[in-house]
Amino acid sequence: MDVSTLPAGVSVRSASLNDVKALVALFEARDRELGIEPEQTAENLKRDFTKPHVDLQRDSLVALTSMGELVSYAWVEDQQHVHIFMNLETRADYRESGLADAMLEWAETRAREHITQAPEGLRVTLRNGCDVHYVSRQHLLERHGFQVVRHFYDMKIELAEPLRQPVWPDGIRVQNTQPGMERAVFEANNEAFRDHWGFVENSFENWSHYALDPHTFDPTLWFLAMDGEEIAGFAICGKEGEDKGWVYDLAVRRSWRRKGIAQALLHEAFNAFYQRGIHNVLLGVDASSLTGALRVYERAGMHAVREFLTYRKELRPGKEPGTEELA
């Protein structure tokens, strides 16, 4: 980074686990500004910082005032060196100082270092998501050549009473995950999500770092739709806070779609949360889902409560490695 572009009195260094508290405060201030419930937690940041193959010295940057106040943050991670993702945040009183631009430029420079490691002939892109109401972020990204390519929703249902019991297709039964099934669930996850926009195959190491994290992993909230010994579909869920449940991943493998399994999995998850006294359940969805997931969730009684924009910038032309449409 060219430090001459930084505002007076601001210095930069790599992030560390010691910055987590200050980073949570930075994100909380942003969320209050947008009028939404703060959602970043220390556990989430620590999980990101300890992800396999993450090098905080190379993949993160924080900016501090001469008084030691953390006022900006940038983070870069990759999927197989072809889809590069960045997380950015700058305190409101520093956004027009040039600091936000400098942090984004650093992130893009770091992202471009992945180009030499990406398979030959594949397109390399840098991506960032932001709330639809976060206008200053949108302007920042657009100034640097990013374009909106997708919309996503957070959807929610408020459970005033239990839903009807799930109706399972003939031959399908539901069970919770059991010890030793982790690899099978991972493989079903990779197969099912191949039909989701932007999919690039994940590694078991990365998947398990998040899916099996002890802060959120609850095997009694993992619901597997089984056809004999095969996993036809799954809903991986967890509790966050006192009265909030999340469906982190829900998908049905191709051979078992259009049978009502996704709807049954949702009802199973909703009723399990209700029985635990959790009445607010959320999930994230692609607004233009290739598999029609949005319609499934709407039929289940969910509604959109937040919208996100996915911005993308091409760093190297080539064949798009991620799923763009169904074959």
Relative strand content: 25-35%
Radius of gyration: 21 Å
The domain count comes to: 2
| Adjacency order of strands in the biggest sheet | 1-2-3-4-5-12-6-11-10-9-8-7
The tally of beta strands, per DSSP, is 12
Protein name: GCN5-related N-acetyltransferase
Keywords: Acyltransferase, Transferase
Pfam family, one: Acetyltransf_1
GO molecular function, one term: acyltransferase activity, transferring groups other than amino-acyl groups
Secondary structure blueprint with pairings:
Elements: E1 11-13, H1 20-34, H2 42-49, H3 56-59, E2 60-64, E3 70-79, E4 83-90, H4 99-112, E5 124-131, H5 135-143, E6 147-158, E7 172-176, H6 182-192, H7 204-211, E8 222-227, E9 230-239, E10 245-252, H8 261-275, E11 280-286, H9 293-299, E12 303-316
Parallel strand pairs: 4-5, 10-11
Antiparallel strand pairs: 1-2, 2-3, 3-4, 5-12, 6-11, 6-12, 7-8, 8-9, 9-10
Provide an overview of this structure.
InterPro entries: Acyl_CoA_acyltransferase (IPR016181), Bact_Acetyltransf (IPR050832), GNAT_dom (IPR000182). This is GCN5-related N-acetyltransferase. One of its GO terms (molecular function) is acyltransferase activity, transferring groups other than amino-acyl groups. The chain is of the alpha+beta class and 327 residues long. It folds into 2 domains: 143 residues, Gcn5-related N-acetyltransferase (GNAT) (Aminopeptidase); 152 residues, Gcn5-related N-acetyltransferase (GNAT) (Aminopeptidase), CATH 3.40.630. It is built from 9 helices and 12 strands. It has a 12-stranded mixed β-sheet, with helices on both faces. The termini are far apart.
